[in-house]
Amino acid sequence: MRSAREAATTDGPPQAQPNNGVPLLEMVGIVKRYGPTLALNGVDLAVRAGEIHALLGENGAGKSTLMHVLSGLTHADAGEIRLWGHPVRIPSPRAARALGIAMVHQHFTLAPAFTVAENLALDSARGPGSGLPLGTFAAREAAAPALERAAALGWQLDPDARIADLSVGTQQRVEIVKALATQARLLIFDEPTAVLSGDEVEELFQVLRRLREEGHAVILIAHKLAEILAVADTVTVLRRGNRVASCPVAETDARQLATWMIGVSPDSPHPLSPSSGGPHPPAPFPTRSSLAREGRDPTWDDCGPHPRPLSRSVGEGRDLTPAPSPSQGEGRRQAGSPPSLIGRGAGGLGATPGKGAGGLGQTQAKEAEEPGAAAAFAARDILVRGDRGEVAIRGLSLEVARGEILGIGGVDGNGQTELAEALIGLRPIEAGTLSWEGGPFRAGVSPTTGYIPQDRRRVGLAVGMTVEDNLLFEAVRAPQFRRGPFLRRKALQRLASDLIRAFDVRTPSRTLPVSALSGGNQQKVVVARALHANPHWIVAVNPTRGLDIGATRFVHEQLRQARARGAAIVLISTDLDEIAALADRAAILSGGRLHPYQVSEVDQTQLGLLLGGLGAEQAAPPDKPSAAGETA
Amino acid sequence: MSVRSETPGVPEIPAPLAGQPPGETTPPAWPLRALRALAQGLGYAAGLLALMSLTFLALRINPITALMALWEGAFGNASSGHLYPLSETLVKTSPLLLTGLGIVVAWRAGLFSIGAEGQLLMGALSAAALARFASSLPGPLLTLLMILAAMAAGALWGAIAGWLRVRRNVQEVISTIMLNYIALALVGWMVRGPLQERARISPQSEPVPDAALFARIIPPAWSGGIPTRLHSGVLLAFLAAIVVYLYLYYTAAGFGLRVVGQNPEAARAARFPVPKLRMQAMAISGALCGLAGGVELLGIAIRLYDNFSPGWGYTAIPVALLGGLHPLGTVLSALFFGALTAGSGNLERFSGVPSVVINIIQAAAVLAVVGVRAWRARRAGSAED
After folding, report:
1. Residue B132 lies in a domain
2. Which of A101, A412, A518, A589 could form a disulfide with A96 if both were Cys (CB 3.0 to 4.6 A apart)?
3. How many separate domains does chain B show?
4. Averaged pLDDT for residues A556-561
5. pLDDT band at residue A350, thresholds of 50, 70 and 90?
C-alpha cells in the first residue's frame, strides 16, 4: 500500500489502517453521460475490505462504464469517489494504479509475443519506464516479486513461456498476478469466468476467496447468478444506468437477483431449472432468502424489490429457466434417453466411434455404428492441424443427424476452433473423411453451411464496416443478389433491413459501423448472417459467450428453431449449462478427442475428469457400459 | 487478448443507442446525407485554409498575398480569365489521382503498398517500349495498345508483390519499395540502352509518334491564345475514379476486398477467397499506377527519361490518406495537391516564397486531417463502452 498511501497524501490525510467503519471504496452519485443518454444515473457503490462485491447487470446496464470511471479510463460527469473515506480523483489508469486499484480485464492486456516474465516486468517497479538506465532491465529479476506472488497462490508460472503459447486460463493467471504485483488493494475482475471452464472457475473462486482473506476488496463483474451466489459476499445490481439494489448475497436468491437485473420476475415454477435438468451445476442454487431476514443489516436499506419494475418480456434463458418450448422439451427427453430414433449405436451416444482409443478398434466401432439413413453429417477419423502445424484433432469421428444438436464441451484450447473449422471445410483435414448424407462433403455448397465463430470481434465481424455490410457477407455472393459483376444494392439493402428486424438487432441505422453496437447486438448480426439462409449444417462455437440473458436466450432460440427446421447442428461451447440446455447428445473435447457423456446422468467427478483431460476410460463410471464399451 | 486497454470487457450498449427504439433502420435520406457531406467538406476546406494561413504566418509570409498568388496560379483570376492555370492544375492532378486511386485499392484491401512509383515507371516504360517497336501502327490503335501495355506492366509489378505476400508472406511494404528501385534502375538502363533515342545523345527515349499522343482539349482561342497542356488522358483519370468507386462499393469483388482489408480473419471465416482478393487488389492497384505512367507519357512527357516521375507514386500516399482512402475523396485531395503544385510557381514568382513551402503545407495538411480523423475515431470508440 506504499503507493496508495503516497497518492492519498495528495488529497488528504493518509489512512493507513483500514478503518472498520469506513468502506475501502465508496462511489457516490456517479453520473456519466454519453451524448443524450445517461450511462450512469447517480450510481452509488460501497465496497469494504475483505469483501467480494459482485456487480450484476445486463450488457448496457452500466457496469463497464462504472468500472471505467473507477479505473481512470473515463471520467464521471458528476459524483465522488472515496477511498477509506477520503475523496480522490482518478484522472488516469496510472492514477488508479497508484491508488491501489487494479483491473483484471476480460480481454487480457498481455503482449502475446513476450514471455511471462517480460509481461510481468512491464508493470514492475524495476521494469522499463522506471527510470533505470537502458540496458539494466532484466525481465526475470524485475518479474521476481510477481512470480513469488504467483507461487504463493500455488501457481507455477513458467517465466520463459511465451504468452501466446499459454492457455486462456493460464493467461488469466498472469493477468491476475500482474494486477496483484502492483500492490493493489482493490481488484476489479471483469467477467473473469467468461473465458474459463468449470474447473478453472472453481480455482478462480478459490483465489478470489484467498484475496478476500488477505484483506483485499474484490469487485466481480458478472452475468451468471450461480457464480455470484457461490462466491460473492455482496451484490449490487445495475439496470440501465441505475442502481437497482445493493444487498448481502445471503439475503437474496437467484430469482430475486434475476428480477432486479431484468426488471420482471421470471414467471416460472422452476427458477433456474437448468441446474435441475442439466448436469452442471449439480445442486440447485442455494436459496438463501430462507436465511433469517431479521438478521438484516440495516444499512442495506435498498435490499428489496425495485420500486419501478420495467416491463420486459421474459421467456426462457440459461440463467433463468429453459421454458417449455416444444423443441426444448424434446431435446431434453432425447438427452435423457438413448436417442434411438436416430439410429445410433448401442450406447446411444454415437457421437464418436473411436474416441479415446487412439484409432485402435475403430473398425468395429464404425461397423457397430453404421448409422443407416439417419446421420446427415459424418466425420471419420479426421486429423486436423492447428496454425502452428501441431496436431490439434487426432482421429476424431462424429455424426450428426438432421434435427439434432450435438453439444461438444471442453476447456478452451483443446482444438475447438480447429475442429469447428474442419467440420465446415474451412480448414483442410489431413486424414479421414467428411461426408454429407452419404455423399461427398463439398465445403459451403453441399451442405449449405452456417458458421458462428468463436470470437465475434476477431473472426465474426469486420468491425470497421457497417451493420449492413456485416450482415451481407454471404449474400453478396448469392446469384440472386448479383447482376453480372454488380451487386443488386436495393435488394441487398432490403435483405439487411429484414434481417435487422427479424433478428432484433438494435441499431438506429443499418449504415452505422457495427463496432458501435453492444456485444449482444453484434452477436445477433453474426447469428443472422449465419442462419438466415436456413443452412442445413450449422457449427456454432461459444455462440453466447459474454452475452446477457436476453441475447443468450435469443441465440438459443435461433439454434432451436434451426434444429426444428431440420438442420444438423454442432454446438461447441465451454459452457456446460449451455450444452445441457440445447444439446441432444453431448461429448467433451479433450486433447483433440471426443468423450461422450449423458447430459442428464453425468456425474460431476466424471465430467471434471473429462474436462481435466483424462480419457473416458478413467472417467467413465463402471455403471456406464456404453461409454466404457466404446472405448475398450 | 487485446492489448488495447481502452475497451476492456464486453462493450455495453453504446450510450447514443441505448434509448433508441429497435427496428429504426432507415438511414437518412440522400439530400440530408449530401448536405452533411457538404458541410463536412466545407469544414475540412476551412481547416485547410486556416492551416495554410498559419504555415505562411509561421514563415513570416503575408498569408493573404500568398494565398491569392496560389489561387491565381492554380485557377486563374477573373480579370485575365484564361484557362491556363486551371488546365495546369488538372494536368498536375491526373498522375496524383491515378496513383492515389492505386493506393486506395491496395490499402483498402489491407495491403500497405508503397509501390505506386515503381508501377508507374513500369507502365511508362512498357508504353515507351511499345511506341518504339510498334511505331508503324495507326495512331489511335497505338494509343490504345500503349495504355493497355502500361496498365498490364503496372499490374504485373503489383502482382509480384501480391504473389510474394500471398505465397511467401513477404510484407508488401518491403517488397514494393524494393520493386520501386528495380523499376527505377530498369528505366535508367533502358533509356541508355535499348530504348535510347536514335541520336544517342541524351539518356531518353524516342518521342512517342505524334499521331498516338493524347489530344489537347482546350482550343487556344478559349484561353487567350495561350496553348494549354490539358489532354484527354486527364479525363481517363477522373473516369478511373468513378470505376474504382463502382468497383469498391457496387461489386461483389470490391465488397470482398473491403472485408479482407478490414478483417482478413473474418473474410476467411466467411469463405471469401482471401489470397485471390489480395492478388486482385495488388494487380488493380498496379494497373492504375501503370496507367498513370502511360497517361503522363502520352499526354505530357512524350519521352521516357531518368526522373520521369518527380515522386508521384510517393505523393500518392498522402493524397490517398487525405482523401480518406475513398476514391471520390481522393479526387478532391488530388485536386488540392494538383492546385498547390500548379500554384506554387506563381507563388514563387510573385511573392518570392520558395515553392518548397508547398511541400510543408501538403505534409501539414495530411498530418492534420489524419490526426483529426484518428481523434474522432478514438472519441467514437471510447463513447462506445
Report:
1. yes
2. A101
3. 1
4. 94
5. very low
Considering only CB atoms, which chain A residues are within 8 Å of B11?
A: 59, 64, 517-519, 522
Mark yes or no for CB contact A465/B262 under 8 Å: yes
Whole-number pLDDT of residue A609 = 53
In this predicted model, what pLDDT tens digit does every residue of B141-167 receive, in sequence order? Answer: 999 999 999 999 999 999 999 999 999
Of B6, B15, B25, which is closest to A37 when you measure between CB atoms? B15
Q: How far is A177 from chain B (nearest CA, A)?
A: 16
Chain A CB contacts of B17 below 8 Å? 37, 506-508, 516-518
Locate A288 and state its grid cell.
438463501
Residues of B in contact with A459 (CB under 8 A): 263, 265-266, 269
Q: Work out the angle between the directed axes of helices A604-611 and A198-213 (0-180°, nearest 10).
A: 90
The answer to the question of residue B317 being in a domain is yes
Give a yes or no: residue B13 inside a domain: no
> Cα A306 to the chain's mean position, in Å?
28
Residue-by-residue DSSP string for B9-73: SSPPPPHHHHTSPTT--PPPPHHHHHHHHHHHHHHHHHHHHHHHHHHHHHTT--HHHHHHHHHHH
Cβ neighbours of A421 in B, within 8 Å: 269
- Interface touch A506/B20, C-beta < 8 Å: yes
Would you call B10 and A34 a contact, using CB atoms and an 8 Å cutoff? no
pLDDT for res B10: 33
Domains of chain A listed by start with CATH number: 2-100+183-295 (3.40.50.300), 114-182 (no CATH), 326-448+534-631 (3.40.50.300)
The answer on pLDDT for A620 being more than 70 is no
Q: b/e map of B311-340 (b: 16 or more CB within 10 Å)?
A: ebbbbbbbbbbbbbbbbebbbbbbbbbbbb
pLDDT given for residue A4 in this prediction: 42
Query: The domain containing residue B374 runs over which residues?
Result: 83-384
Is the bond leading into A13 cis (omega within 30 degrees of zero)?
Answer: no
Q: What is the mean pLDDT of residues A477-481?
A: 89
A366: Cβ–Cβ under 8 A, 6 or more apart, which residues? A353, A354, A380, A397
Per-residue pLDDT, A395: 87
**Does residue B51 lie in a domain region?**
no
Among A319, A193, A200, A226, residue whose Cα is nearest residue A268: A319
What is the band of B39 on the pLDDT scale with cuts at 50, 70, 90? confident
Contacts of B6 in chain A (CB under 8 A): 73
Most B CBs within 10 A among A223, A387, A518, A554, hence the mutation to make, goes to A518
Give me the total of CB pairs closer than 8 Å, taking one residue from chain A and one from chain B. 195
Tell me whether residues B270 and A474 touch, CB distance under 8 A: yes
Does B102 score more than 50 pLDDT? yes
Residue B305 clears pLDDT 60, i.e. is over it: yes
Helix (H, G, I), strand (E, B) or coil at A42: strand
B124 pLDDT exceeds 80? Answer: yes
Complex ipTM: 0.82
Q: What is the CATH number of the domain that holds B344?
A: 1.10.3470
User: What pLDDT score does A359 carry?
Assistant: 34
Interface contact flag, A34 B381, Cβ < 8 Å: no
Q: Which amino acid is at A406?
A: L
Q: Answer whether B12 sits within 8 Å of A486, measured CB to CB.
A: no
Nearest-CB residue to A426 (from B269, B380, B384): B269
Rounded CA-CA distance A505/A467 in Å is 9
Residue B258 to residue A109, Cβ atoms within 8 A: no
CB-CB neighbors (< 8 A) of A517 in chain B: 11, 13-14, 17
Does the pLDDT value for residue A82 go beyond 90?
yes
pLDDT tens digits, B240-299: 999 999 999 999 999 999 999 999 999 999 999 999 999 999 999 999 999 999 999 999
Retrieve residue B40's grid coordinates. 463536412
Q: Are A450 and A478 in contact (CB under 8 A)?
A: no
